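Aim 2, interim progress. The first record below pairs a target sequence with its structure tokens.
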Amino acid sequence: MKLEPVVLQGRHVRLVPMTLDHVPALWEASDPELWRLTTSQVHAEDDMRRYVQAALDGQARGTALPFVTLDAAGERVIGSTRYGSIEAAHRRVEIGWTWISSPWQRTAVNTEAKYLMLRHAFETLGCIRVELKTDVLNERSRRAILRIGAREEGILRKHAITEAGRIRDTVYFGIVDDEWPSVKARLEAML
């Protein structure tokens, strides 16, 4: 399982490899509400640069593969997402660190992005497990993860400390390779 930068193209969204050149457009697409329930705090363009650099550092270590999310129609930067917590020996990745600019929330964008990433993980990379997680307080994210067909697997209490200092409980979800055909069909029907 070797993760290399790749473009994932759909009808609504295009995921492209993240670079530092994306920082200004990512900052422009961001808004403070997006960071309220995340472990990262992005309140200025320099914070976004630090966020992107951390993602790229993870890529250099082989533990992450970050993407910038583009609106396929207009090629406008509307967010980011990534594979993280990569465990090649166990054929496992996490999909996360996902945020979408407010005007594109509750559209096909996030559903298609997850579909493209899941398809790539299971059908190209040969993953046997894909994990997703979110803050226990993030009800919208929890519903969205369940909606795509992931199973809630449990809550890790006091799992992380956010940059703002809040102690976070984290909900874990998973999709395994045996479930992928039905999850794939569900996502294709939704799209």
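The second target in this work package is listed in the same format:
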Amino acid sequence: MDMPFDAGDGEADEALLLACGRGDARAARLLTLRMTPWVLSYARRLLRDAAEAEDVAQEAMLRLWRIAPDWRPGEARVTTWLYRVVTNLCTDRLRRRRGAALDEVPEPPDDSPGAEARLQQAARVAALDAALARLPERQRQAVILRHIEGLSNPEIAAVLEIGVEAVESLTARGKRALARTLAGQREALGFDDD
């Protein structure tokens, strides 16, 4: 999985945010180009709704710009702070719509060659998304942050405001539940051919 940002870019992100806080439009543009795609991807995975994910991404980026002038260097990584904001915004939206049916949003088309490969990949993504949707909210957040977004356990602990051991427990339980849910679908999803 491609990382949305370079792991060593924490200092560069902070420098850009501090420059934004001083009114540097170029820094704001660079940080927007760097952060928005992964913010949108993370929100889309949590919400399973493209339109709502776009709203969350926009709100999260606005909050980042508002905090820029008051950013205190060294207290938190910009990405950790932003993941926390997106997680909270998504959690609020999910709580508001609890009980309402979730719209199925098709995944964007995959760039891999061949229609059959694209269909198989879409089926795998849909199966994973459906299985993720069955997980309890905190397990889903932890699994997505760890195994899809690629954050470390300490980073996830900061985002979810829990201990590292709790992160380990959530991800382990989430992975076991996903394995049980997806176990009967291996052949249908083409994993016996791999």
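The chain has eight helices and no strands. This observation will shape the mutagenesis plan for the next reporting period.
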